[in-house]
Design brief:
Elements (H helix, E strand, L loop, with lengths): L1 E9 L3 H9 L4 H4 L3 E6 L10 E6 L6 E11 L3 E7 L3 E11 L4 E11 L2 H30 L9 H8 L2 H5 L3 H7 L14 E5 L4 H12 L3 E6 L2 H15 L4 E5 L5 H14 L5 E4 L17 H21 L5 E6 L23 H23 L4 E6 L7 H6 L1 H7 L6 H13 L10 E3 L2 E2 L12 H15 L2
Parallel strand pairs: 8-9, 8-11, 9-10, 11-12, 12-13, 13-14
Antiparallel strand pairs: 1-7, 2-3, 3-4, 4-5, 5-6, 6-7, 14-15
Helix pairs in contact: 7-14, 9-10, 10-11, 10-15
Length: 466
Amino acid sequence: MIRFEEIIEGRCSPQQAFGYLAEFANIQAWDPTVLSARALTPGPARVGSRFRLLLHSGLRPVRMHYTLVEMQPLGRLVFDGRGDTFRALDRITIVPTARGCRLSYTVAVDFDDPAGRRLGALAAPLLRYNIRRAGKRLQTILGGDGPLPRLSRGTRLADRLVFPGLIGFTCFGYRSGNKRWPLPPRPLEGRRVVLTGGTSGIGRAAADQLLACGAHLIIVGRHPEKTAAVCRQLSNRWGAEAVDHEIADLSLMSDIRALAPRLQDRYPAIHILVNNAGALFNAREETAEGFEKTLAINLLGPYLLTRSVLPLLRQEPDARIINVSSGGMYTQKIRPEDLQHRQSAYDGTTAYARAKRGLVILTELWAAELAPHAISVQAMHPGWVDTPGLQASLPTFYRYLRPLLRTPAQGADTITWLAASPVAGRTSGLFWLDRKPRTVHVLPGTRETPAERRALLAALDRMAGD
């Protein structure tokens, strides 16, 4: 038998650590050898609960089934795992400390026959290495700390070579990045999140993920019936007290001006604002207020909403603003003199990309402006995601790239991570994909000047009526 032990110092409560670890499917987040994990027994974890794991192992994955065989509330968990030719016993003990809790995580592996035991002895250094990696990731999750993310030279080079960067937009990019800086258990407990565009696509997936993290969610939607129906679905799953909603057409500045006082009347503070609502229009249209629609919903609306709710964001520590951009912004430079596309022929993808470029510029400007208030401002893009909106607006792209597209949940992952990660809250002004800072400019001629940044702010101020 081969035995390994890791000691983990947690800053969360014993209750949080116990609840997180009892749901053994969470091992996918912290054990890098686990490809996938899911619970086979419905309901909360209890003695007898079963879990199925798929592990990295050489040329082919290894399947394992685990059973929770011992459960002493807040103190001890024992999981009995079975593979085809071996057994693993995972024991976790939890004791309270002044800062949170201390975990002892022990893994004992035994093989069924002498040949397996000899092979296991040879593989012991690799097993020990992987157990240590799992322990370090669990330390990051339960300890709430870790190194600050940074834009690495390798990432910068991959982005600028374009093709490697584009591969990262696909489902393969998500699979390589979704385990970076894993989240602690229920990191948004007691946190209030305003999410725009949360009724479909990426926003709908983000709503589920944010609620799973313990958030109190306020969804802002345009259609009353659809928004109410989505909120009923979420309430049935997560509890009625966890979900509220507001109705506003975020392409109309009058709706946004009316929304902000309602939020101020209902809530003493907002901890996180997610500017997710967006749309791509292939033909040029104007709103009832005379603004080009792509500009209104993707850039002007988020600008006015964010400025309007800043008093609520300033009420709490560690407030965050998350702006959902698009990888398409890499192709365009902002044109502050023609934000409404009246001076040139209209192209929907170009208008969308310029608006999303503007949102990234705002992210950098707001990060500097709001740093004294300890408000973190981030931008991200979700990669190429299989949504009805993509199919409708870019049908040819959708038809050819569909096998490589991400699910909405995969696209939403970095939104949730930026909202919930203690590490992300220690940074500001970055542009993210798959929990990793990315390059903002990859093509020549897309970088704006300081004068163009000032002109962008002045134009948005004028149109928003500030």
